[in-house]
Amino acid sequence: METIQDWGALGEIIGGLAVLFTIFYLALQLRRSTRATHRQTYQAAADSVARFALDLAHDPELQGLFRIGLRSPETLSEPDLFRAFSVLDAYRALMESFYLHNLEFDEVLSQERWQRILSRILSTPGGALYWKNRKWQYHAQFASYMDSLARDLSPEAAVVESGR
Q1: 27, 85, 87, 123: which has the fewest Cβ within 10 Å?
Q2: DSSP 3-state assignment of 72?
């Protein structure tokens, strides 16, 4: 015959299972929410990079200055070199944001894309000069990452890249 204690034990088992189910469900929802937030943040950053490129494209003078600053910075006056490096400041700030975001979410594929872009910039005389003079202003992990990209560049690659 069933006693009140038997019913109580059954209730405890059912309650324990309900708690486990609730924890599992909340963990699943949290994972979905985190993934959605990650994608939204990534999309917002990608939109910022696109806006940056469009803004640069709409200013032919600044675009030309930026190109010369990368290819032959020694030909620019100090104020023009500062302007060219300011464009790189804005771009590198976006890249740093991407890097730290990708690091947090272990996003390898998109980081490979940015790695190619950053390597190409570092391979130019102006990009190398910029990084030498301004790397102190970036997050230590990003600076270490950029240093590793710079070390990976061969002198031959730098010559080829700077000619483009």
Answers
A1: 27
A2: coil
